[in-house]
């Protein structure tokens, strides 16, 4: 078995040098200004240590990776009733698609496409002021990462607030079907801001650790969710975490994972590790181009695919 620290160093060196870097998202203008030549990888292990490579001190916009954590919070509030409002099947469509919503009477396919995540945010908001709901989401990430420097990048949130016509359409459409309870602008305000949470790769890897260890964060000893819930969140990440690129991600990487248009991916190696990668350039499905390749290298070298296979195979 190769040494993890060697593998991580090799991956960071390869990703820094590659010319194919994908395209940064420009539909949120503030994300369009991010330098695509950056790359970070952090692997949080069961003993609480983190193996790192690349730009691990740099804060990035976690965007849709935040949907893993809002789903976790909403399941804590609503339990399995959540699944009456949001499905758990892959959509086979782009992350911001509206096409299925009409046919399926406003019920989003899963909690990771934009429509589903907006419905989940609505559940967290119920009974609270937007500021309180947002504070709860931010504090949850500070608690999971065990680091109070996690923050909301107001410039990114404002940038999306100015240009988020598509998300407004999704939210209004669901409101028309009674799937969103709260005022649409309140729900979107919380949604845009939780997508604008900024973290480092180290913080993000630590935040996902509870999903790798049966609901318990091994670095802090905190129980976050039950083992059963962690398993189910991982299942939804595997099938839906990369939108219409989820099949390709499972095929190439073989881990539950969640991507965001800021270029981050959180991937879970059950029983072993929580991995955060960040490379701002995206592929055609809106997932990090080099982030996926880096994870593909990692699972092949370490034998970490959940589908089996030995270490150091070539892909
Ligand atoms: N895939 C993503 O990361 C999308 C999140 C982004 N905030 C949006 O709503 O469009």
What would your notes on this structure say?
The chain is α+β, with helices and mostly antiparallel strands. It folds into two domains: 4-61 and 198-302, 3-Layer(aba) Sandwich (Beta-lactamase); 65-197, Beta-lactamase (3-Layer(aba) Sandwich), CATH 3.40.710.10. It contains 14 helices and eight strands. A hairpin with a 3-residue loop joins β7 and β8 (273-278). The chain is globular, with a radius of gyration of 18 Å. The mean pLDDT is 96. Bound molecules: glutamine. The site of glutamine has 11 residues, from loops. The site of glutamine (GLN) has 11 residues, from loops.
Question: Any chance you could write out the topology, listing elements then pairs?
Answer:
Blueprint: H1 4-17, E1 40-45, E2 50-54, E3 60-61, H2 66-78, H3 82-85, H4 99-103, H5 114-125, H6 130-145, E4 151-152, H7 154-163, H8 165-176, H9 184-195, E5 197-199, H10 201-207, H11 209-212, H12 227-240, H13 246-252, E6 257-259, E7 264-269, E8 273-278, H14 289-302
Antiparallel strand pairs: 1-2, 1-8, 3-5, 4-5, 6-7, 7-8
Glutamine is lined by residues 63-64, 95-96, 114, 160, 167, 195, 260-261, 286.
């Amino acid at each position: 078995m190769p040494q993890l620290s060697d593998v991580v160093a090799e991956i960071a060196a390869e990703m820094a040098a590659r010319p194919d870097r994908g395209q940064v998202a420009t539909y949120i203008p503030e994300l369009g200004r991010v330098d695509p030549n950056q790359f970070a990888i952090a692997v949080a292990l069961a003993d609480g240590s983190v193996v790192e490579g690349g730009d691990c001190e740099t804060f990035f916009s976690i965007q849709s990776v935040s949907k893993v954590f809002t789903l976790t919070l909403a399941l804590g509030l609503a339990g399995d009733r959540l699944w009456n409002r949001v499905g758990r099947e892959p959509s086979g469509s782009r992350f911001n698609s509206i096409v299925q919503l009409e046919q399926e009477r406003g019920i989003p396919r899963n909690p990771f496409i934009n429509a589903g995540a907006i419905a989940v945010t609505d559940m967290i908001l119920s009974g609270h002021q937007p500021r309180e709901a947002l504070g709860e989401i931010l504090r949850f990430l500070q608690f999971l990462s065990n680091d109070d420097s996690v923050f909301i990048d107001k410039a990114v949130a404002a940038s999306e607030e100015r240009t988020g016509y598509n998300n407004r359409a999704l939210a209004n459409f669901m409101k028309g079907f009674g799937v969103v309870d709260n005022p649409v602008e309140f729900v979107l305000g919380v949604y845009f801001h939780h997508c604008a949470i900024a973290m480092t790769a180290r913080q993000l890897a630590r935040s996902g650790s509870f999903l790798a260890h049966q609901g318990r964060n091994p670095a802090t000893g905190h129980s976050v969710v039950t083992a059963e819930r962690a398993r189910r969140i991982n299942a939804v990440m595997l099938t839906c975490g990369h939108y219409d690129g989820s099949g390709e991600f499972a095929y190439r990487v073989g881990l539950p994972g969640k991507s965001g248009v800021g270029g981050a991916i959180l991937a879970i190696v059950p029983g072993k590790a929580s991995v955060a990668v960040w490379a701002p350039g995206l592929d055609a499905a809106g997932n990090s181009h080099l982030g996926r390749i880096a994870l593909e290298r990692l699972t092949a070298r370490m034998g970490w695919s959940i589908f089996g296979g030995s270490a150091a195979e070539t892909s």
